[in-house]
C-alpha cells in the first residue's frame, strides 16, 4: 500500500515537472506522466507490420566493415558568437572488393536552417572530387576515378557552424546540439562517414521524428579546440581526456563511434577512479547531492557492465548534467537532463539513478557494439533498459520492485520490439508507442529470455554477443544467430511474440 501511494505521488510529481519530456525522442525512456489512479486507455497496437517506405533491416556483413576512418579536427569556437570554424581532415581506406565511385558524408547540422556553411571540400590524397552536392543531411561527391580496395581517400573540409539556440519547443524533440545560456553542446558537429556496406553502398538514414537515425562505424579522432571569448570559469567536458597546449585543448580518442564536447561556465567538476578509468562528473552547482548520486551510480554501473559484458575500452567517461530535457549517449560522454536532478529523492528508486545506469550501458550497446539506430534501435535501447535491471539487482535490490513496477509494468508495454524510428503507428502518442515497444517491451523480452535460458546461458550469451560484435555494427541476425547457438531451449514461440522480423 505504501508503495502504491508513493508511486501515485511520484506520478503527480512527474506531471508537474516532466510532462514535456513525453514529447521527446529520447535516448532513454522517459516517464510518461499518466497518474496511476486515472490511467488513460492505452492505444490499441495493431499487430500488422506498418513499415512502408522503410526497408526491413538488412543484416550487415561484419567481415565487410573493415575500414576505420580517421578524423583530424581543428576547431575555433567563438563562444559569445556561438560560431565554430572547423578544419577537418578525413582519411578513409576502402575495404570493399568493389570500387567506390561516390563518397557520402553525414552533416547533421544541416537539420538546422543556416547552421552549416561550407567553405571548401577537396580531395588531398586519392581521387579528385566532382559534383559535390548537399541533400538533406548528406554531402555527396562523385570521385573522378574510382577508389579501389585498399586505397585511401583523404578529404580536407573547411566550414563554419552557426550553432542553433537550444530552445524547447512544444511538440518537438529536445535538442542536444547548440547553445543555451548555460551550456554549449557540440554533438555530431563534424562531417562523418557512415558505414559502407558492400553491394549496398553508404548506410545513411534520414532523421525520424524521435529516436536516433545515425549509424556510426568505429573511428579514430584527434580534436584540437580553441575557445575565443571564453566566459570566466568555462568548463569543457569531452569524450576523451584533455591536454592543453597554450590556447589549444587537444584530445585523442581511438576506436570510438563519436566525439562530443560540452562547454559551460556553470558546471562543477568532480572525478572518481574505477580501476584504470576516470569518470568525470559535471553538475550544475545547486545539484551537488544529486550529482554525487549520479557519480556513484555511474561508477557502480561501469564496474558491473565491465564484469558482465566486456572491459570498458577507454580510460575516460564524462557524465554531464544536460541543460535540455533528455538523456543522450555519445562515446566517452553522456548527458542526463537537469529534470532528473531536480527530482532527486535521495534513494535509488528514481529515474536519476535508473537513467544513469541506462546511459552508462550505452558505452557498451552503442559504443563497444554498434547498431543501426534507425532500423534496429532495440539492439541498443532494449539492452540498455534491461541493463538498468541488472544494476538494481546488484546494487539496489531494495528498489528492484520499484524499477520493475514503475519503470516498466506501469506502462503496460506492448508492440513489437524490433520497431524502427520511422513507424508512426498512426496513434495519438507515437513516441510513447515507440518507447513502450522498443525500450520497455524490449526489457520484458530480455527478462523472459533470461528466464527461459537460465542465468548462466543468458549471461554467457550477452558476454559472447559483445565479444563477437565488438567494434562492429551488430544486426538482429547476429543477435538471433548467436542466441540459437547458445541454448537448446526452443525459443521461437517467445521470439514470435516479441518480433516482427526474425532472421
Ligand atoms: Zn538509451
UniProtKB/TrEMBL annotation:
The keyword Metal-binding applies. Zn(2+) binds at residues 358, 362, 381. It comes from the Bacteria. Signal peptide: none annotated. Keywords: Aminopeptidase, Hydrolase, Metal-binding, Protease, Zinc. Binds 1 zinc ion per subunit. GO terms for molecular function: aminopeptidase activity; metallopeptidase activity; zinc ion binding. Its cofactor is Zn(2+). Pfam families: Peptidase_M1. CDD domains: M1_APN_like (cd09604). The active site is at residues 359, 439. Its EC number is 3.4.11.-. PANTHER family: LEUKOTRIENE A-4 HYDROLASE. This is Aminopeptidase. It comes from Anaerolinea thermophila (strain DSM 14523 / JCM 11388 / NBRC 100420 / UNI-1).
